[in-house]
Amino acid sequence: MLQQTYARRLDANMLKLIAILAMTADHLAWLLFPGYSTVPIALFLHVIGRLTCPIMCYFIAEGYHYTRSVRRYAARLFIFAFISHFAYIFASGDYVDAWSFVPFSRGSFFNQTGVMWSLAWGLVMLCINDAERLQTWAKTLLVLLICLVAFPADWSCIASLCVLSIGANRGNARRQIAWCVFYVSIYAAVYALALDPLYGLLQLCAVLSVPLLGLYNGRRGADPKLNRIMKWGFYVYYLLHLTIIGLLREFVL
Length: 253
Description:
Blueprint: H1 12-32, H2 40-49, H3 52-66, H4 70-91, H5 115-129, H6 136-150, H7 158-168, H8 173-194, H9 197-202, H10 209-214, H11 224-251
């Protein structure tokens, strides 16, 4: 994404670390400033947090391109999505008891599970897109069905569609950006209408990730050990930090 425009200075490990820091800042803001706070520091941290999802989407699409086994890759993503669901609910301000882990038990259709659910389905969308045996109408129908399944997740089906757009338009930065901005704009509008106008507007700050991704040099990193750690380190961190935030919410704050 924008790889032809900027000097390429960031490898995959660096971008994933940026995503980790941005995600942590965002989730700490939700912990320390519950609800749709208008405190400036909370808004700033949430703006920083918008960097994370596009970076995650980008590397899911890259992982699809480079993986030796899409099936194993998808299986690992769905396993992480299932496990992290419990951590996501536990960390959320809506957690009350074990019944809270059941989707839709809180009377809402939004944010019923973590973003990993939507990312995993994005990988499935890429598989469908590349399936030569499927006709266009069948691909479209399946993608729409996946959108419905992924809709209740954090970032809704937008994360899935961004993974699809990035992967399907690999090598064409303009189309990648155009489609992702289009989908994020839809998400921002729905968020503003259904949840909170100001926080809906904040979702548009996801476009700030474009210059960062433009600095990607196409390499994993120089340190083989760090490469092995970071391959799945982001997802492990996602699970662990949500658990810690949940513990802090329950027993400290």
